[in-house]
Amino acid sequence: MRKQLIFIFTVCTGMAWCIPVSAQRYLENAIPYRNSALLRTDGGITEVNFTKKEYLGRAEPGIIYYSFYRDSIYRTQGGYHGRPLHGRYVERYPDRSLKVLGNYVYGLRNGKWQHWDNGGVLRKVSRWKEGKETGRFAIYDTTGRLRQKGFLLDGKFNGIVSTFHARDTIQLEKARYDYGTKIETPKRKVLGSVYDRFRSLFGNRSVAKSEDSSDLRSIK
After folding, report:
1. Total domain count for the chain?
2. Final residue in a domain of this structure, among 45, 60, 89
3. Whether residues 199 and 143 fall in one domain
4. Looking at the record's lineage, which domain of life comes first (predicted)?
5. Quick one: 118 and 63 in the same domain?
6. What end-to-end distance do the CA atoms of the chain give, in Å?
7. For labelling, which of 46, 56, 149, 150 has a CA lying 20 to 30 Å from the CA of 23?
8. Are residues 125 and 198 in the same domain?
9. Once rounded to an integer, what is the mean pLDDT over residues 59-85?
10. Shared domain check, 80 and 169
């Protein structure tokens, strides 16, 4: 009887040691593959998310990657230094008002990014794709009025870019770019000159165009 009790106690003790180990492994696998941190500096507060383990994926040599290592964010070209930022990214001013709001995917900026000044005015909205500023963008002045909008490709003007100059009236200038290079508008042909002459002779009835001044704050 005594031997049976000793055997039962030994088995139960072994189970008591085994259960926490298996449970720990289960929980470790169940935790999402990312982590987070709150960094405080003289310039404000930064909320970051990053992968739980070091990422061993491929890194492009010409791309800038952002990583978290020992309570600091590192910006490196062509590789990682620590755990890549992954998920929501928030910068705040000392008064906790928003400064930057964006998203990272394995160390690369991705999706919609927004920037505010210390007065709470939205100054810029743009989109990023795989670490490159590509897509629609909008820039605002200190009063929140739209000043420029258009498209970017790898951080360079590409396509039609509209610039608003006046404050009270809409004075719009449009220019076309090809990967950062401005394309000069060709001079009017003879047919265009004839059309202008025809309009001057018969009243020059102009139709006012209402320019779309949407500020792109609803970029998704």
Report:
1. 2
2. 89
3. yes
4. Bacteria
5. no
6. 73
7. 56
8. yes
9. 92
10. no
Query: Which amino acid appears at position 17 of this protein?
Result: W
Cα–Cα dist 35/175, whole Å:
44
| Paired residues of 11 in beta bridges | none
Identify each DSSP E strand in the chain by its residue range: 35-41, 44-50, 64-68, 73-77, 83-84, 87-92, 98-105, 108-109, 111-116, 122-129, 132-140, 146-153, 156-157, 159-164, 172-178, 181-183
| Three-class DSSP category at 199 | helix
CB 83 within 8 A of CB 52: yes
Domain extent, residue 187, equals 110-208
Residue 52: pLDDT band (50, 70, 90) is: confident
- Alpha carbon distance 102, 116 (integer Å): 12
Q: Give one word for 111, left, alpha or beta, with left for phi > 0 and alpha for psi -120 to 50.
A: left
DSSP state of 209: -
Contact 85, 76 (CB under 8 A): no
Question: Which pLDDT tens digit goes with each residue over 167-207?
Answer: 654 678 999 999 999 998 765 554 545 544 444 445 444 43
Indicate whether 115 and 65 sit together in one domain.
no
Of 85, 78, 112, 114, the closest CA to residue 97 belongs to 114
Task: Say how many C-beta atoms besides its own lie within 10 A of residue 128's C-beta.
Answer: 21
Give phi and psi for 128, each to the nearest 5: -125, 150
Q: What is the pLDDT of residue 3?
A: 47
Token readout for 19 is 């259960």
11: tokens are: 């088995």
pTM of the predicted model over 0.85: no
Whether residue 195 sits in one domain with residue 125: yes
